[in-house]
């Protein structure tokens, strides 16, 4: 009941005319930027993060939430119409959505995706309201060894589930941890990796890192391959669904959140795994198996609902533990830090109005998203016709303006370019970007928690595993690390038994 009354207070904050305006602006901006090919939610949020700096925190985060969900909707639009997923979570939408668009059913695919986002977001946010305060209450008792164990879990998990190999994921994480070391040591005050530059003494702003790795790196990568890529927008009418389409999709919309939300809430869960699981589930349960691969509407509705619910799940661990599980959540955590607010167990007590206003704005944003974007789908489709040279030139311009606005120093532009080149190199050698961003954000905090845990135990390493919670987390870490090694012998044994029975 306490959560319900807090949510009602949050609606009182979110439904004020000013905050309602910021929610609508966020939804429109997020969709407009997210719909452009190759950008996706993470880059959209990173690009538009500086836009919120002039606002007071509550209005800024309400606008930010609108950008988040709007960009997710835009990413699925690009995936369906252009077969160009903005991020890995939108890949599944292209599998069935793009064949639907090519066969003249792009309107139905967009409607299934939009309503799926609405249903998944609504159900996922209800779960967020129910679970987040309880998780926060439990997290109050977590100490330094437990926090460090959770961050190790996030590091290991994110390097294991992303990219083509664990080595590349680990290399990306090390790049992020190195960038996070730049600046003054929090405990001793000594300079680290500043090369004698006073401008680097405060460290590299996370926003510059995120914009550099996502926006600049992607723009340089696309520019290097511009002649090899081409795409034309598929014409689309007003999204609508017939009675038969609704009959085939309503169960998919309801099943998606049950798969997506739990994976979003766990460290390094993200939306990639649940969207694929939802796709496989819908394929198995479908009565129209001959349509799969050619444009089955359930293959759009279920995964998109799971993806949206997963986004709500990411906010549980981000708000209550300060652990981002996706690239967008990592940038959102950077936004909190830019306002001097540290997400964690005490956030619901110290910033109650902001948190519940933000959660209530998610409901408002989902309604606005559905109301505004269904009729505006033809407009978003026209944005896809912008020539890519102009598109990415604009991205470079806004990224530079945003980075300069962070600190007002010319050296920030130099740092932005250097990090952009690092992002380009990471794409060239297949290194995922997310571990680097999480390394920059969580690295300094992990170091601080490690030092505190060692100080409490007088330098004894056993102090890192002196609680049942930390032991449990390290057991999960060991399982993640050793699972590929254990899986191969198990498969070999299973195959030998099968061959013996045959």
Would you give an account of this structure?
- The chain has 19 helices and two strands.
- The protein is mainly α.
- The protein has one domain (2-141, 148-230, 237-466).
- Strands 1-2 form a two-stranded antiparallel sheet.
- Strand 1 and strand 2 (191-192) form a beta hairpin.
- Helix 4 crosses helix 5 (91-102) and helix 7 (144-161) crosses helix 8.
- It is globular, with a radius of gyration of 23 Å.
- The mean pLDDT is 77.
What is the N-to-C order of secondary-structure elements (H for helix, E for strand)? HHHHHHHHEEHHHHHHHHHHH
Distance between the termini: 60 Å
- Count of discrete structural domains: 1
Query: Beta-sheet strand percentage?
Result: under 5%
- Strand segment tally: 2
| Strands in their spatial order, largest beta sheet | 1-2
Count up the helices: 19
How would you state the average pLDDT, rounded?
77
Net shape: globular
Helix content: over 70%
Low-confidence stretches: none
Radius of gyration: 23 Å
Task: Determine the structural class based on helices, strands and strand pairing.
Answer: mainly alpha
> Which sheet architecture does the biggest sheet show?
2 strands, antiparallel
Organism: Streptomyces typhae
Protein name: Tripartite tricarboxylate transporter permease
Pfam families: TctA (PF01970)
Keywords: Membrane, Transmembrane, Transmembrane helix
């Amino acid at each position: 009941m306490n959560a319900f009354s807090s949510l009602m207070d949050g609606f009182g904050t979110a439904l004020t005319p000013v905050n309602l305006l910021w929610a609508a602006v966020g939804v429109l901006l997020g969709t407009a930027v997210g719909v452009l090919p190759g950008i996706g939610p993470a880059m959209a949020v990173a690009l538009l993060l500086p836009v919120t700096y002039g606002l007071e925190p509550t209005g800024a985060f309400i606008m930010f939430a609108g950008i988040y969900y709007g960009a997710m909707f835009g990413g699925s639009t690009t995936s369906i119409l252009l077969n160009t997923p903005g991020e890995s979570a939108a890949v599944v939408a292209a599998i069935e959505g793009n064949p639907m668009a090519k066969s003249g059913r792009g309107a139905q695919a967009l409607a299934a995706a939009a309503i799926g986002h609405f249903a998944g977001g609504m159900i996922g946010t209800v779960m967020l309201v129910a679970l987040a305060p309880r998780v926060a209450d439990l997290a109050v008792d977590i100490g330094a060894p437990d926090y460090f164990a959770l961050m190790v879990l996030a590091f290991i998990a994110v390097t294991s589930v992303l990219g083509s190999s664990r080595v590349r994921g680990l290399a990306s994480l090390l790049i992020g941890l190195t960038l996070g070391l730049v600046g003054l040591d929090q405990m001793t005050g000594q300079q680290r990796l500043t090369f004698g530059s006073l401008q680097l003494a405060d460290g590299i702003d996370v926003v510059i890192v995120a914009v550099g790795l996502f926006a600049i790196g992607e723009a340089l990568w696309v520019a290097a391959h511009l002649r090899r890529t081409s795409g034309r927008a598929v014409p689309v009418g007003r999204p609508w669904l017939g009675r038969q389409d609704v009959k085939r999709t309503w169960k998919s919309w309801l099943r998606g959140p049950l798969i997506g939300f739990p994976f979003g809430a766990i460290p390094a869960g993200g939306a990639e795994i649940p969207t694929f699981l939802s796709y496989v589930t819908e394929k198995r349960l479908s009565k129209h198996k001959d349509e799969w691969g050619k444009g089955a509407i359930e293959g759009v509705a279920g995964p998109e609902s799971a993806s949206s619910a997963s986004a709500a799940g990411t906010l549980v661990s981000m708000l209550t533990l300060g652990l981002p599980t996706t690239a967008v959540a990592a940038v959102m955590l950077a936004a909190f830090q830019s306002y001097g607010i540290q997400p964690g167990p005490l956030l619901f007590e110290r910033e109650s109005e902001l948190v519940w206003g933000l959660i209530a704005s998610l409901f408002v944003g989902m309604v606005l998203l559905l109301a505004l974007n269904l009729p505006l789908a033809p407009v978003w489709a026209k944005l896809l016709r912008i020539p890519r040279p102009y598109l990415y030139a604009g991205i470079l311009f806004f990224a530079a303006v945003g980075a300069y606005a962070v600190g007002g120093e010319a050296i920030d532009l130099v740092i932005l370019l250097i990090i952009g080149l690092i992002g380009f190199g990471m794409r060239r050698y297949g290194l995922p970007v997310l571990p680097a961003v999480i390394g920059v954000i969580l690295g300094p905090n992990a170091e601080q928690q490690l030092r505190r845990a060692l100080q409490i135990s007088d330098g004894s390493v056993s102090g890192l595993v002196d609680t049942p919670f930390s032991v449990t987390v390290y057991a999960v870490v060991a399982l993640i690390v050793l699972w590929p090694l254990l899986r191969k012998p198990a498969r070999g044994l299973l195959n030998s038994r099968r061959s013996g029975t045959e």
